[in-house]
């Protein structure tokens, strides 16, 4: 296998890391929605935490994406 | 790329500087432009300057200005609310006073009405009493008159009776009785 | 056609020469498109704030209301996270927020996004990190090291937990920088790729004709995707600035209220 092909395979594999991030973000928003429906009065005060949590989870997916980009272009 | 990179880096003429950097860029990495480190220092330094400038501006000018206005607004709202609250209590007090006044007026009116009624009743009673007295007097007078008439009648009756009795006695016995005897006898019969 | 990563190229507009910097190697001193973007963002922020605060009235105008809503948001953030000392650190958090937000949003209008440059995000991350370290050292002195001495853990485990704490503390600027960088890079690359599909597929359909006309719906779909992603990118631009500020406040709170169990 030549190095160019390995690069693309590696980049493709790196994107798999986004699966975890997708699950995490979905989990966060799903749980928020479930909690918000139980107690709508408290929901508004937790939106900040929601987005911070989502951003933290998303960052790991972004990391996988950056690794993939680095493999193709780096 | 717009211009083809020249690898002729030996001539550092100002015009060729652009081409030269592009050549070194191509040489450094064919990858992400972000990892071409030759532009890092310039960006970092410039961003630091801008950040410090903005920090100073925000800390010394903008934040105090906005903070002042927002505090002022909070003050205004607080005083307005306090004023509204005092006005409200005042209005409540006034309403209370007005109600008390109305209550008092009503009580007064009621008292007046009662008094008037009482006066009228008393007057009526008094007049009634006066009328009654007059009527009673008349009745009494009439009764007196009746009694006098009756008495007169009764004396007449006894006179007639004694006369009749004297006559009957004279006829029966042939002897006339004295008036005194007759009167006593009638009295005893009556 | 330009590749999807060409938009991130730093192009010198006016060059002044090169210097050698110890860690980074040979550096070009120049006014680049990155400098221009940062300048526009800075001028935009200053202009916006001047408009919002000049002749500030108790009953706000349109600009003042906009400025106040941003101000109030970050103010609430700083106060709720850091506590009663939040006011002191508010200007820092607000500056950070405005810097990141303006550069992110500007990237939606210009062809160049300053926050998609790793140099820029690393600088912002390091500013936040070093501020935290300096504030921690000034406020707590040597007690700053208690941050890495977890009093709640069993004595035997403490060194290991402390080591993990230390590593995660040192990783903070990197995660801060990479999160912002990755979000901006990823969003703009994806936008560019979808936008390219529209042009390439549409051109192919028209030039080739015949069966290739089937590509036009695909191009239309890509156009829809581009529009939707543009909206999403606006949200991300705001959200990343918000998250950056929240995390900065959380990190500041760690050292400001050290040992308070706040």
Automatic annotation (TrEMBL), chain A:
Please give the GO cellular component terms listed in this UniProt entry: plasma membrane; proton-transporting ATP synthase complex; proton-transporting two-sector ATPase complex, proton-transporting domain
Q: Name one GO molecular function term.
A: hydrolase activity
Q: Which UniProt keywords apply?
A: ATP synthesis, Cell membrane, CF(0), Hydrogen ion transport, Ion transport, Lipid-binding, Membrane, Transmembrane, Transmembrane helix, Transport
Q: Name one Pfam family in it.
A: ATP-synt_C
Localization per Swiss-Prot or TrEMBL: Cell membrane; Membrane
Coiled coil, from the record? none
Q: Where is this site: Reversibly protonated during proton transport?
A: 58
This protein's source sits in the domain of life called: Bacteria
Q: Is Membrane among this UniProt entry's keywords?
A: yes
Q: Which family does it belong to?
A: Belongs to the ATPase C chain family.
Outline what the protein does.
Answer: Key component of the F(0) channel; it plays a direct role in translocation across the membrane. A homomeric c-ring of between 10-14 subunits forms the central stalk rotor element with the F(1) delta and epsilon subunits.
Q: What is this protein called?
A: ATP synthase subunit c
Task: Tell me what gene encodes this.
Answer: atpE
């Amino acid at each position: 296998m030549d190095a160019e092909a390995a690069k693309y395979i590696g980049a493709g594999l790196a994107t798999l890391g986004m699966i975890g991030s997708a699950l995490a973000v979905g989990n966060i928003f799903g749980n928020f929605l479930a909690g918000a429906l139980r107690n709508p009065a408290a929901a508004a005060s937790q939106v900040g935490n929601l987005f911070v949590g989502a951003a933290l989870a998303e960052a790991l997916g972004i990391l996988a994406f950056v690794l993939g980009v680095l493999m193709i272009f780096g | 790329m717009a211009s083809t990179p020249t690898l002729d880096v030996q001539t550092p003429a100002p015009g060729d500087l652009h081409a030269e950097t592009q050549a070194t860029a191509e040489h450094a990495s064919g990858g992400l432009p972000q990892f071409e480190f030759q532009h890092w220092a310039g960006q970092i330094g410039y961003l630091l300057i801008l950040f410090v400038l903005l920090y100073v501006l925000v800390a010394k000018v903008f934040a105090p200005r906005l903070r002042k206005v927002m505090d002022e607004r909070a003050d205004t709202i607080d005083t307005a609310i306090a004023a509204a609250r005092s006005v409200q209590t005042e209005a409540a007090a006034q309403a209370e006073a007005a109600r008390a006044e109305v209550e008092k007026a009503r009580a007064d009116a009621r008292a007046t009405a009662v008094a008037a009624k009482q006066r009228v009743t008393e007057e009526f009673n008094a007049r009634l009493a006066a009328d009654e007295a007059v009527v009673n007097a008349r009745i009494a007078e009439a009764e007196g008159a009746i009694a006098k008439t009756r008495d007169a009648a009764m004396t007449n009756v006894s006179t007639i009776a004694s006369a009749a009795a004297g006559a009957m006695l004279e006829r029966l016995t042939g002897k006339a009785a004295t008036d005194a005897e007759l009167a006593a006898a009638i009295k005893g019969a009556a | 056609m330009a590749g999807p990563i060409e938009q991130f190229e730093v192009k010198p507009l006016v060059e002044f020469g090169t210097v050698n910097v110890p860690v980074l190697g040979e550096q070009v001193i120049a006014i680049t498109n990155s400098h221009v973007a940062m300048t526009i963002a800075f001028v935009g922020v200053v202009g916006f704030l001047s408009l919002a605060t000049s002749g500030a009235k108790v009953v706000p105008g349109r600009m003042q209301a906009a400025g106040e809503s941003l101000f109030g948001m970050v103010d609430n953030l700083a106060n709720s996270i850091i506590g009663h000392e939040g006011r002191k650190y508010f200007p820092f958090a607000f500056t950070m927020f405005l810097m990141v937000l303006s550069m992110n949003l500007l990237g939606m209008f210009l062809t160049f996004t300053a926050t998609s440059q790793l140099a820029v995000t690393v600088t912002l991350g390091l500013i936040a990190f070093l501020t935290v370290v300096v504030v921690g050292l000034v406020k707590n002195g040597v007690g700053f090291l208690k941050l890495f001495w977890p009093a709640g853990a069993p004595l035997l485990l403490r060194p290991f937990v402390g080591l993990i704490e230390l590593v995660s503390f040192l990783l903070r600027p990197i995660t801060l920088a990479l999160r912002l960088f990755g979000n901006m890079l990823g969003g703009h690359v994806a936008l560019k790729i979808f936008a390219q599909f529209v042009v390439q597929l549409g051109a192919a359909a028209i030039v080739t004709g015949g069966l290739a006309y089937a590509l036009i719906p695909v191009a239309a779909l890509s156009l829809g995707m581009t529009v939707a992603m543009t909206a999403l990118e606006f949200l991300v631009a705001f959200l990343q600035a918000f998250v950056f500020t929240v995390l900065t406040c959380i990190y500041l709170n760690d050292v400001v209220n050290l040992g308070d169990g706040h």
